[in-house]
Amino acid sequence: MDQLLLSGKHPVRQFLAYALPAVLGMFLSSFIIVVDGLFIGRFVGSRGLATTNLVVPFLYLLLGISIMVYVGGMVPATHNLGKGDFEEASRIFSITFALGTVSIFLVVLTAGLFFEELLSFLHLDGVLRSYGRDYLGILLYFYIFMTINIGFSIFLRAEGKPVLSLFFSLAGNCLNFLLDYLFIAVYGWGMRGAALATGIALLLPFLFGLFYFLSGRSLFRLVVPRCRMREIVMLLYNGSSEMIGQFSVSITTFIFNAVLLRRIGVDGVAAYTVAGYIIMLQGMVLTGIIQGLAPLVGRAYGAEDTHSVKRFFRIAVSAACMVGGISFVACAAASSLLPRLYNVDTPRFLSVASTGLLVVSFSFLLNGFNIITTAFFTALGKAGHSALIAILRGVVVINILVLIFPRFLGDLGIWLAIPVNELLVAFAALYFLHLDNRTLVVKRST
User: Fold this and answer.
1) What is the count of structural domains for the chain?
2) Which of 23, 55, 167, 387 is the most interior residue, by most CB within 10 Å?
3) Which backbone phi and psi does 215 adopt, to 5 degrees?
4) Where are the transmembrane segments (predicted)?
5) What pTM was estimated for this model as a whole?
6) By the 8 A CB rule, do 240 and 377 touch?
7) Which residue range forms the structural domain that includes residue 195?
């Protein structure tokens, strides 16, 4: 059985040892993006903020592909670590990185060839088009390193080294902050400066991660990847719910942007950008909890320790609910203050953003439970349950609500769609947990 599960540590201490560095790392990563927004809002304006949100659908397309591949590979890799089969774990690790790198390279290359068409598809027209060229035109090619860094982080945590992953992330974040100040505030390079700061900062954790995995210090070894097409299909299937989760953000952001542009205009998209930053901050903390949960559940499940599987899940849900409660109180209390940090000169932007943040804050009370449950099923290798919850939450329910609610509730309905979506999906998640509990009981008794 896996050494981690026999270490004698209390499950809460084991979970915190994995989750806290991951939470801190993910929070710092997302906080740097928020800082980007603060610099852009202050020195470029609401059009710059709107541009960063209009390119989000493409960013999450890349994130969806990469997370599908890396999480899909992490699940069987950690199961093999739990069984003590390090050779098989390394083979899966090598297949995963080869597939992830090639996939993202091809998507980025295609986007570069059809760049003007991509800008039009993302609604970057008129005065926003030049902002899009300056921002996405530079950042596009750095996205390859961003996605590889995600893979490094996932597998570092899978082998039990979350603090090292945190160090890599922190180094890149500090560099990004310094370059933001230099390129945007001092040199006045605007959107180009923001893109260059982020892109250059991504290279630092990439180089650290590459050196680590090539140094021979990792449990995972890079080997010549031997694989079958059926194996690749199963790998992608394992990570399909995570892909759906990211794709859903892309689809939903695209639809939200279209509705906001039609009903409110650029100020509406800029306001949604600020709300999106807060949602992302809370979501990244939840992602850190997930990254602490997934390897523990995967290794416990591989070792057939279903008691630990359930305990780790309950601990993660408790942590997510605590984060959700704190986020709700903080966001609701500061809903009128937070938008002023980004842009103090546009009354319409301030009004729309304040209302949006207040309504959106209610979603924090339930989204943690839905996100943790989705990740839990992925860690068990039950991608069907996970994918269905992710589809309901991120594609089906939310987009039906955002298209219907404004017809009856006006602009308020756009924001109200977000918390109502979490409430409805929570019922579906509870149903699948009820079904899965019976399966785990049967597994434990055999």
Assistant:
1) 1
2) 23
3) -80, -15
4) 15-34, 54-71, 92-115, 135-156, 163-187, 193-214, 235-257, 269-294, 315-338, 358-380, 387-406, 412-433
5) 0.70
6) no
7) 9-440
